[in-house]
Amino acid sequence: MSKQAMSKTAAKSKTATKAKPISTTSEWTFELIHEYDREIACLADEFRLDTYQNQIEVISSEQMMDAYASVGMPLGYHHWSYGKQFLNIEQSYKRGQMGLAYEIVINSDPCIAYLMEENTMTMQALVIAHACYGHNSFFKGNYLFRTWTDAGSVIDYLVFAKNYISQCEERYGIDEVEAVLDACHALMNYGVDRYKRPSPISPARERELQKEREEYLQRQVNDLWRTIPFQHEDEDPKRKFRFPAEPQENLLYFIEKNAPLLEPWQREIVRIVRKVAQYFYPQRQTQVMNEGWATFWHYTLLNTLYERGKVTDGFMLEFLQSHTSVIYQPPYNSPYYSGINPYTLGFAMMTDIRRICENPTEEDKRWFPDIAGSDWVKTLDFAMRNFKDESFILQFLSPKVIRDLKLFCIVDDDLDSEIEVTAIHDDSGYQAVREQLAGQYNLGNREPNIQVFSVDLRGDRSLTLHHNQYSRKPLAEESTEEVLKHLHQLWGFDVHLHSLQDDVVRQSFHCPPMEEDDFDFNR
Amino acid sequence: MSYIVDRRLNAKNKSAVNRQRFLRRYRQHIKKAVAEAVTRRSIMDVENGEQISIPTRDISEPIFHHGRGGRHSNVLPGNQEFVAGDRIPRPPGGGGGGAGSGASDQGEGMDEFVFQITQEEFLDFMFEDLELPNMVKRQLAGSEEFKMRRAGISNEGNPGRINIVRSLRAANARRIALTSGKRRQLAEMEKELATLEAQEPELRDHKRIEELLASMAKLRNHISRVPWLDDFDLKYNLHVKDPAPSSKAVMFCLMDVSGSMNQATKDMAKRFFILLYLFLKRNYEHTEVVFIRHHTSAKEVDEEEFFYSRETGGTIVSSALKLMKQILDERYPLSEWNVYGAQASDGDNWNDDSSICYDLLVNDIMPKVQYYSYIEITPRDHQALWEEYESVRAAWPDSFAMEHIVDAGDIYPVFRELFHKKYA
Fold it and tell me: Which of B:55-114 have CB within 8 Å of A?
């Protein structure tokens, strides 16, 4: 595809009347950034990319390390784990093991994108196209982001969170706050709602509500525990009502609302971590699409600029060099292999959708009767808006992409002494590869499915979680025990976790460990 | 239209707090690493930062994830030789989903988390909990030195401290105050005179004119007699004397360089001296070091010669103590200097000399120093010198310390022991 596009553009540029390139050197200036941004914005408009207002911030490499370390939050609360992240990045950057990302872009309105001052003009233009028009339009258009994040208020919320947590540190001490945050971070992936839409809320209202919530919640919690009728200890256990009535998958939410011993400020911290987790939830589910979309658009936008003579040959060479290294996919047996490169897969799929729309083959017509020959801009836009990685792959991974990437499926079963190759890139394998790959991006398969099963309201107040094993995959023991310690700290009473396979308990974890479980709650 | 903002001048240390939090959380690990580094390092780079590594296990942030086992299916790119149905022997060590989806959870396979701390931080960790004995005492009680400090303006003072601007301003004000009435009268008279003189000559009131001229002359005379600068106009800069704690320290390094001391022993002594020096440097604004080496006679030398030249011959320790006393009397008045002594030796001394050392120390040196430490670097038994010094320690238990060192690894613990915070 890229070769095709290049030769086509080369042919065109010969015939096109010579337009004056925007710049001819690799030095950037603020005027030039403005100008490139203006040109790219015009093109983006032609391609009907709908974006938030852009805010481009030029920063130094040290600042980039800071931004990097705070995992994409423009202002994060203080926590040692970000310090660890920072040290790690600093170390590998100084040793030259790793270059810094060219850009970081924040899902906010206005959409903040960071450009590094060390970049050349070409790289700045690439980043503008990639982040400010690619990612930005994805944030604004994709249904997951529309449902789960509120770009307009996220910055304000983070400010609120940061201030709240530092107030707590002043009042209750750094160690206290750190303990709660550690515990919450361990459960962060289990702090997201998957099926409800949270109503966006303004930060001022958030502050107001926070106070009310504090009082109300504490009352609720006490109520819950107050209703325990002590007289009925000998009641028939089968008639015992179960709490919660349905299993709960949002552990942090459950803790925030029901943990008996938490102070109001601790609940608020649980809530903050939960909200942050929710904010990042769509990003975790759309990595391939998001990067693919942004890469597709920087490629398309910059090539169009070239066709119109706005950029020089040198610009294009530098751009293509960088572009090809971004979308390089090492094969499975290469020492550089570390999973499927989301840029490669996403870009290959996006470009292939365009190809299917513009030049469909017989095979494409068979596989994609709906989109073969349709308007590619509309089709891509539709795909961007209405899918996440899993469904996107299931819907759009074409035989051609499977062949190009030479994808194949293996099954590694501990009951089998050998690894089996179940499908490869051939006619009989396409469908299987597609399904397997889609499954690989299903967060539900990747992360253990753990839910709150019950609370022993009338007994020792212990909390029981259930893990439903997927393909007989067990829980990793050491880390599970560690996480349970954190959970135990938040819950305040015993915590049990059973790992079930077809309703048979395969693994059990307890905190505190069962052997010394002679804790007296009536003390 | 996009906003373009230049943020390069904004603070770049946004992560500093988080970094500090990390160091705080793992201070035990870091302290241990620093202690090890001090014993391991070559002498010249004690003042550098240090690379710290912490086992990844200790700093991991646990999350729920899948363990080994079960059925892992995986899609891989770059197939070259496989067709559907191929069976591949499991790569060694990879049981149950080695390349499975769980791999991403474990992070990179590094066993150690490695990072760099700065020299500043390194030294902080190194000196944590340490404090020079009695330093506080001397700093607070022994404040025989003063510092002048500005304290505004006063009406008295010595001529060297006149504040010219303030004085002239005061003089100006006084002059205006004393002459303004007279100047007003003078101005009125001048006006009157002018009207009188404007009349026709024959109509002029000559008597009045003369009267006016006379009183004007008188007024002018009065005005001119107001002094331009008077005594009480003078303002002086006021300086007050504040007692200033002495912030200067001198450290005497005494070392035996006789034939019995080999280079390894001297290296060990050097480490000890460097630790002491660094410690003093951080606690005093100004630190000087005097190097005295001795065999049968003592000599003040520079650092290079102190550590690296070799002499042979016998050992008379008292020669060094005598020289120290002499230098102390000549150059370092006790009102200004905090004196520290550190002596390293292998314990060899001519037997009759040791008692002289005792006398010198107890009578002349110990009363003057904040602290005196003696380290004996020898694998052999103690000799007479050690015994004499033990009685010095009995006489000055707070400010005299002695330790026995066998190899380089002993130095840092001994150093800490010697200077361990004393809870009064």
Answer: 59-80, 82-90, 94-105, 113-114
Tell me what percent of the residues of chain A surpass a pLDDT of 70: 87
Among candidates A132, A423, A425 on the partner chain, residue whose Cβ is nearest the Cβ of B2: A132
Do A425 and A311 have their domain in common?
A: no
> Within the 301-340 window of chain B, which residues sit less than 8 Å (CB to CB) from chain A?
none
Residue A136 falls inside a structural domain: yes
Q: A408 and A309: one domain? A: no
Residue contact B25–A476, C-beta within 8 A: no
CA distance B97 to chain A (A): 6
**Least Cα separation, residue A233 to chain B (angstroms):** 35
CB contact (8 A) between residue A437 and residue B75: yes
**DSSP-derived secondary structure for A224-290:** HHHT--GGGTTS-GGGPPPBSSS-BS-HHHHHHHH-SS--HHHHHHHHHHHHHHHHHHHHHH-HHHH
Domain C-terminal end among A298, A326, A354: A326
A234 domain-assigned: no
Chain-chain contact of B75 with A407 (C-beta, under 8 angstroms): yes
> Is the CA virtual torsion B379, B383, B387, B389 positive or negative?
negative
Is there a single domain that holds both residue A417 and residue A439?
yes
Residues A501/B69, Cβ–Cβ less than 8 Å:
no
Contact at 8 Å (CB) between B194 and B182? no
Q: Do residues A12 and A138 both lie within one domain?
A: yes
The last residue of a domain, from among A326, A351, A377? A326
Same domain as A507, residue A415: no
User: CA B342, CA B371: separation in Å to the nearest integer?
Assistant: 8
Round to whole Å and give the CA distance between B140 and A190: 58
Residue range of the domain that includes A304:
2-142+286-326
- Across the A:B interface, residue pairs with CB atoms under 8 Å apart total 285
Q: Does A450 lie in the same domain as A428?
A: no
Whether residues B97 and A412 touch (CB distance < 8 A) is answered with yes
Residues of chain B numbered 108-137 and touching chain A (CB < 8 Å): 113-116
pLDDT band at A14 (very low <50, low <70, confident <90, very high): very low
What is the reported pLDDT for A517? 45
Contact B99, A340 (CB under 8 A): no
Considering the domain architecture, whether residues A456 and A507 belong to the same structural domain is answered as: yes
Does A333 sit within 8 Å of B78, measured CB to CB?
yes
Taking CB atoms and an 8 Å cutoff, what residues of chain A touch B17? 78, 83
Half-sphere exposure of B138 (CA within 13 A, CB side): 23
Beta bridge pairs of residue A464: A454, A496
Nearest CB among A83, A332, A418 relative to B22 is that of A83
pLDDT along chain B (424 residues), means of 10: 83 80 87 75 62 81 86 89 87 47 39 80 68 44 61 86 91 90 90 85 81 90 88 87 70 82 75 74 75 85 76 80 90 83 84 85 86 84 84 84 78 68 43
Domain spans in chain B, listed from the N-terminal domain onward: 16-59+112-128, 159-238, 245-418
Same domain, A459 and A483: yes
Least CA distance to A338: which residue of chain B? Answer: B104
Residue A195 belongs to a domain: no
> Which of these ranges, A94-108, A173-187, A382-396, B190-204, has the smallest mean pLDDT?
A94-108
* Interface contact A407-B77, CB threshold 8 A: yes
Residue B162 DSSP label: B
Task: Report the domain count for chain A.
Answer: 3
3-state DSSP helix/strand/coil % of chain B, to nearest 5:
45, 20, 30
The answer to whether A403 and A439 have CB atoms below 8 angstroms apart is: no
> What would the pLDDT profile of A328-352 be if each residue is shown by its tens digit?
999 998 888 888 999 999 999 999 9
- Of the candidate CATH numbers 3.40.50.410, 2.130.10.10, 3.90.550.10, 1.10.510.10, the domain formed by B245-418 belongs to 3.40.50.410
